[in-house]
Structures are given as C-alpha cells and as structure tokens.
Predict the structure.
Amino acid sequence: MATARFRFYEELNDFLDYPHRRCEFEHRHARGATVKQAIEALGVPHTEVELILVNGMSVDFAYRLRDGDRISVYPMFEAFDVGPLLRLRPEPLRVSRFIADAQLGGLARLLRMLGFDTLHDRAYSDRDIVELAQRESRIILTRDRELLKVRTVTHGCYVHALEPLAQAKEIIGRLQLGASVRPFTLCLCCNLAVTPIEKATVIDKVPPTVARLHQEYYVCRGCGRIYWKGSHWQHMCARLGGILD
C-alpha cells in the first residue's frame, strides 16, 4: 500500500464522506493505482472532474500514484480559465444532446420544453443508457454516481437537485446552455421537432373552443401531436422563466 494526500474542490465535496469534505486528507491506495481509480474509490465519478493537479502539475486519469503525492481535484470551471492546463475529457460535444435515466423524467420533459434533444424511457437499463450515449454522442444525466463511473462513459452530469425545475436550472447553468435555448421546438412526448401547420389542416382535430380562439398551430411530424399557444403554453412559459432567470 502507498499513501497520498487529496483535496477536492467545490461541488466534488458532495460525493465524499463528511470527514473528507473541504479539507486535505490522507488516503491509502494500492501501489501502482491510477489517479482515476483512487478518485472513484473515494466516491467521485470521473465525469465530474475537469482538472487534476499532482504536486502542482496537471496530469490525466492514467497517472499512477506515488507514495507521498499531493493531489488537487477540480470540477468544471466557470470563471477560472484552465485553457493552458490539461483537460481530462474529450472536446465538448458540438450539440448538447442528453439521455436522462429513469429517475429524471420531469427534467427530461423540461429540457425538451427548452429545445434540447433529450431521450428518456423508464424501460432503459443502465447498459441501454451507456450504449445510446456512446452511439448518439449524448450527455448522461443521472443521480446514480455508479453509472457515471462506467469506464466507457465520457460525457455525464450528476444531477444534485431533487426537484425538476431546480434540476433544469442546474443543468442550464452548469453547462452554460442559456444561449442554446430554443423553447417549444421539440415535441414533449416523442422528442422530435415540431413545425407550423395550417389551421385548415387541423381544425377538425382540435376542440371547437380552441379552433375559435387560436390561429397558429404546430404539429409533431413524429407522433402527430398538435400544439397551440393556449393557457397550458402560458403556464409553461412561466415555468421556463423561472429556470432561465
């Protein structure tokens, strides 16, 4: 066995046992262990880590720990420019697309409402989620830290908040997605794009009261669901305003 000293910063402390939070602590590890193995053994998924410094020098996950090393572990930065340092993940995805696990149905619906392509199905197994994320270049959203420790997962976010509105606000802020929001462009049910459609085409498919009051309609080309800007749309606008404040 060998010993190293660790210090985790900001929200990474939420994954640690209480005695290890917001302080430097000693941790024993197998000789030859990688820094990734040690970090995940302490409870922190590798997808949450942006930067690792060992004895003041930037390293990647493959670095093998030595006795007496001092390790500083940082999450995603918002204000501090780490450009000159080594980033651990591959380049950011060109388009932010998500897959949410079974617990995050409310979050998935809100992200679709905001215009973000988000898969969600309570029938998905962890294996399904990992394979879809790899195949379609999606970011995994989950409250299961073990899912984010899977070796092949490269893009994932542990969702700290418990309530869907707070979860959506957390993801939009953490990934700095405000400029990418395109509200009401995706179907809330099947996640496909909605497009304008002539009133005459749908007038026999909506309630008579709706037909009298509204002139603009949108249809999902996938499931055929019809949308209009009624009271429900106004309620959704209010919810989105709370997320984007």
